Amino acid sequence: xxxxxxxxxxxxxxxxxxxAARLAGVMGNRVGLAEGHxxxxxxxIRGCVPKKLFTYAAGYSEAFExxxxxxxxxKKPRFEWKKLISAKNREIxxxxxxxxxxxxxxxxxxxxxxxxxxxxxTVQLEATGERVRAExxxxxxxxxxQSPNFSGQDLCxxxxxxxxxxxxxxxxxxxxGGYIAVEFAxxxxxxxxxxxxxxxxELILRQFDRDLRRLLQEVMVAKGIRVICNTLLExxxxxxxxxxxxxxxxxxxxxxxxxxALGRVPNSGGLRLERARVAVDAADxxxxxxxxxxxxxxxxxxxxVTNRIQLTPVAIHEAMCFLRTAFExxxxxxxxxxxxxxVFSHPEIGTVGLSEEEAVRKYSRVEIYKTLFLPMRNTISxxxxxxxxxxxxxxxxxxxxxxxxxxxxxxxxxxxxxxALKGRLTKDVFDATMAVHPTAAEEFxxxxxxxxxxxxxxxQDN
Length: 462
Known about the structure:
Structural class: alpha/beta
């Protein structure tokens, strides 16, 4: 008789944890999973899924405007926030039900409770005090919004609360310049909310290619989004029915809501990791090796709690690698190279591989191919927003190092470009590929001559 209650116990019911638990159960293992909130984690409940639904809803604002140029007469549209919230809630409930059904089909025992470590093989369910022992344990508790400690911080909301506001604010200040801040600045602006973005850097989206950053910020400003850069939000005060944000340069901005989108941190606090001797780094991220093992060989961790690439597909991929390593005796190391990603702004950004700036630092000869044009859908609609497609190429091997796009459906385009870069295709293969016309994507295979090149870090224009 086994001394363990489970072959695997998973702490966390997000994308990575559920995938690992369900498939481990399908393999015939005894599996338990603890989740103290709703099943689905950040992505399903308060992240990717509701955010994309909001993005779709916001997109209709521009669609109604653009339709006029194509001959449509559109009566004055009216947006109802509460209807969107209700529709979002129904969809999330449906997806949460599917997660539960998948775990049930995998014969996974689900505990509706937070779990903490008692020792390296034992966890305790806080809701009941029950203790269970497992041969293997997977930590998949994800991340949470970073909330810096400043006066008035309690008056602000984060991405955890933004999806459930009772009323649509008339004005909002968003602090931050990453994915979440930029996406919600565009969403709220499209809903007719007076929107201000406050960011400490020179340009939004710090880790992206500079051309993308600059062009998107210019478009946002042209639309009417106020973008205040090189400035910090220092403290917040209540001023009658509004809130006042006091910035580091002395500027005071008033709004109905203030949203903090200042990054996310690992959700590792309170797990009592020290009892299991699981090590964390200075940012409280669980330390794992290339096979996702922690400092304790039978305890693994996947997803945002390891604080590497905070994306849902990465957590799911890591869960699959964990299963191969832990249960199929096929040690599978992580490959975090060439992860495609998108920012669902208006217009969208899609990117994979190296930016121009990164490539120049790493390669002695770099070729830059890019084109800026008005996409066909904007020609007669009157929308003066150009589209950018860009390739970064190693001038010696001809391998495409990076692909970047700003414009309609950028997220869809970059997924396919990710396959090309993962296959280490050369620019010659792109040139030999027949274009699909008329499309925006054809620009990626019709840029035959570099706009400029770099030799040993120095730019040389053609």
